[in-house]
Amino acid sequence: MALTEKDLEHLEKLARVKLSGESRERLRAQLERIIEFVRQLEGVDTTGVEARSYTYEFKPELREDATKPCLPRAEVLAAAPAKREGYFAVPSVIEADEL
């Protein structure tokens, strides 16, 4: 399929670019090759081929959702830069008058 000058102008407008000279002709040739390739793909018989969104058999590896013992609170808080009443102490991010 030969792209017309009007087609190229429309594509330039959509892409918000302005091409001229050699780059315009190079783009025209590349687009014509792409369109020809798509036409070839349209001719492939896919009867009996299941539609997929991926090209290989995908099976996610899931782990068992099981509880595990956690670290003791004292051990975790030992690494905290600041703690208060058994919890991490952090700087206030909301002022009292904003509550």
How many DSSP helices? 3
Find the count of extended strands (DSSP E, 2+ residues): 2
CATH topology of the domain at 5-42: Histone, subunit A
The average pLDDT value, as a whole number, equals: 88
Q: pLDDT below 50 for ≥5 consecutive residues: which ranges?
A: none
Q: Which structural category fits the helices and strands?
A: mainly alpha
Order of helices and strands: HHHEE
Question: Mind sketching the topology for me?
Answer:
Layout (H helix, E strand, L loop, with lengths): L4 H11 L5 H22 L30 H6 L4 E2 L2 E2 L11
Antiparallel strand pairs: 1-2
How would you describe this protein?
With 99 residues, this protein is mainly α. It has a domain at 5-42: Histone, subunit A. Helix content is 39%, strand content 4%. It has three helices and two strands; from the N terminus they run αααββ. The protein has helices spanning 5-15, 21-42, 73-78, and strands at 83-84, 87-88. A two-stranded antiparallel ribbon has the order 1-2. β1 (83-84) and β2 form a beta hairpin. The mean pLDDT is 88.
Q: Can you give me a brief rundown of this structure?
A:
By secondary structure, the chain is mainly alpha-helical.
